[in-house]
Design goal:
Elements: E1 3-7, H1 9-16, H2 25-34, E2 39-42, H3 53-63, E3 70-75, H4 79-88, E4 92-95, H5 111-127, E5 131-136, H6 140-143, E6 153-157, H7 159-163, H8 170-186, E7 190-194, H9 202-205, E8 211-216, H10 218-227, H11 229-241
Parallel strand pairs: 1-2, 1-8, 2-3, 3-4, 4-5, 5-6, 6-7, 7-8
Helix pairs in contact: 2-3, 10-11
Length: 244
């Protein structure tokens, strides 16, 4: 079974656009977990354009009493970010190579150049008892370098998988993801995935064995607006529950 972790960034973005605490991010996290979601993901950026530090702290407090739901905090491992994560102590921290002004995550780590930097961040997380995951492109050559960082998991960046879905090149792209996942698992590294996965393309992706978690936010939020939270979350959980 693959765990579904819902990214709440877009809920926070809607809230921030009106200057008051509606919709409330913590309330939405409670609603999602009540529907059976096994994880909540947030990505607090330096400018707090969606998730704020206060949101992160309040979600940490909410989920600390729920052993069935994991909190995953994503972000670039600046010292400020790592201090926030250390304060909250989520089950998982996903390290992402984003610049402060980047609109959204659009590439994985280049471990040939940044292995020492990533290793230092993973070491700090390990010291605090926090599981580390690193955002990475579907490249077996990059995957082979992951053990040098000390990361517990990788999160495969799935934008290319999603953007080529139902196109002639898709099977080639899919096989790159499959090979990357297999390589990570051979090395004892857990595999997560996320970015632009949706109800149309998720089932095929999860034919890759032992994907531990998928993090989905942007598309899921839109689908919930169109078709209702209960229906959409139920469909995602059904797909994840059927995964190998």
């Amino acid at each position: 079974m693959t765990k579904l972790s819902v990214n709440l960034n877009k809920i926070a973005l809607l809230r921030n656009s009106r200057g008051r605490d509606f919709p409330n991010v913590v309330e939405f996290a409670h609603k999602m977990t009540a529907l059976g979601v096994q994880g909540i993901t947030i990505h607090p950026r330096q400018d707090e354009r969606h998730i704020t530090k206060r949101d992160a702290i309040e979600l940490g407090e909410l989920l600390s009493d729920n052993p069935n739901v994991e909190l995953n905090i994503e972000g670039y491992p600046s010292q400020d970010f790592l201090e926030l994560v250390t304060r909250i102590k989520p089950e998982q921290c996903t390290l992402v190579p984003d610049s402060p002004d980047q609109l959204t995550s659009d590439h994985g780590w280049d471990l040939e150049k940044e292995v020492s930097f990533v290793k230092n961040a993973c070491s700090q997380l390990a010291y605090e008892g926090i599981r580390s995951s690193i955002f990475i492109d579907p490249s077996p050559n990059q995957i082979k370098l992951v053990p040098n960082t000390g990361a517990d998991r990788v999160e495969l960046y799935t934008e290319e998988y999603a953007s080529t879905f139902n196109k002639p090149i898709h099977e080639t792209i899919f096989n790159q993801y499959k090979a990357s996942a297999i390589e990570a698992q051979k090395l004892g590294i857990g595999v997560n995935a996320g970015h632009d996965l949706d109800l149309t393309n998720l089932s095929k992706f999860l034919t890759i064995n032992n994907i531990l978690e998928v993090s989905i936010g942007h598309v899921l939020t839109i689908e919930c607006i169109e078709h209702g939270m209960k229906s959409i979350i139920g469909k995602y959980i059904e797909i994840c529950s059927s995964a190998n």
